[in-house]
Amino acid sequence: MKGKRYLAKNIAFLTVGQFGTKLLVFFLVPLYTSVLTSAEYGTYDLYSATVGLFVPILTLNISDATTVFLLDKNISKEGIVSISLKYYFYSLLVFALLIVANIFFKFAPLFNEYPLFLFLMFAVNGLSQLLLNYARGFDRVKDVSVSGVLCSAVMIALNIIFLLPLHLGLKGYYLATIAGTFCQILYLCVSLKIFHFIKIRRQDRTLKKQMLSYSCPMTLNSVSWWVNTVSDRYIVTAMCGIVENGIYSVAYKIPSILSMFQLIFSQAWTLSAVQDFDKDDSNGFFSKMYGFYNAAMCIVCSVLIVLAKPVAHILYAKDFFAAWRYVPFLLVSVVFGSLSGYLGGIFAAVKDSKSFATSTVAGAVLNIVLNIVLIHFIGTLGAAVATAAAYILVWAMRMYNAKKIMRLDVSLIKDSALYLLLVAQSVVVLFSDRLGGWNYAVNVVLFLVACVLCRKEFVQIVEFGKRKIDGRE
After folding, report:
1. Could you tell me if 363 and 393 are in contact, meaning their C-beta atoms sit under 8 angstroms apart?
2. Which of 269, 280, 318, 436 has an alpha carbon 20 to 30 Å from 57's alpha carbon atom?
């Protein structure tokens, strides 16, 4: 089937980029946790999280509109690129003014320590997001992968140089991150020949209005998604301190393995969803892909929950080792965030940005409320539990709305049993000190039960692989 071939091709390209990129960064975690203090890592994390908030707000999330509109062959590519770049440059000016205002009025003194780094992080992150979405919209997924590997290679090399022989500490970490992203920008500008698409002439007002009508609701979605993903860092900092936030931030490094698989699939999936949308799902493509994706994410999550503490021993140095307690529920949150992203591909196909926003806002509100309540009673662990609960709500709402748009054949009873197994594994790991060796015994049994529940999907994946090898698919 054309849809499966297109999806498989994009997954292959994105796997090369994402796997190489994330794996290399993942293995540098011991370096970061041994060279940087918990407070320094917590500071960097807050800078990064703040940039992640302001990029979609100040650009009106125009980058999300670029991919969807560029995939429409009836719309001028020059117009889309020129409009989106205009809003990016507007955002640079506004962010610079906000930094200057903060220097004078000291709204957030923490961000006055490295104002130049904060601005440069915003500049390179905003532009790289835009260029990556251009590449996806041009169906140049290969360039997305190559640029990702280049970015990571430069970032990693400079981190080793800046942190070890030069001993630049946190400043070196900032410089390496900014330089790596800048190299990615240069590569994409050259490979996409982006300057050929920039037109200074008067822009199409109708196209601009259409893009903004899609992107503005997505701004609310992006901000709410940011709340679900990183707002807990601010609440942890406020209630438990910057050191505890540094430890909590490091806990995300193990779930980043699962996030890597999620990111690869979701980027390829959005392209396939837009091109192969069929509200009746007559060939079962959407339903089958959901089943495969759900099974794969849950099984990988189950394995990582079992290995959370042993991997933490290897990755987390000094005080950072305490982060292992937060890993299991953060892994569960990645699973539901991934499934929510899959269903989001359906909304992207019909340009329904409002359904994106409604579900994510609801999750964001729940996240903030639960963070405040749970952190008060059970400390930083409450942030991880709150994040998982919020993503579960987002997934439930999107599943309900997606079924209104198209026919989806999903076994919710079986899937719910699978999700309960993941939660049970997470609870068992939390009590591993009391359970001793029984912790692994119980979790292995739960993992095997999960494999039995997913056996149908695994058989179908194997059969599909055989047909690909035989040239029948």
Report:
1. yes
2. 269
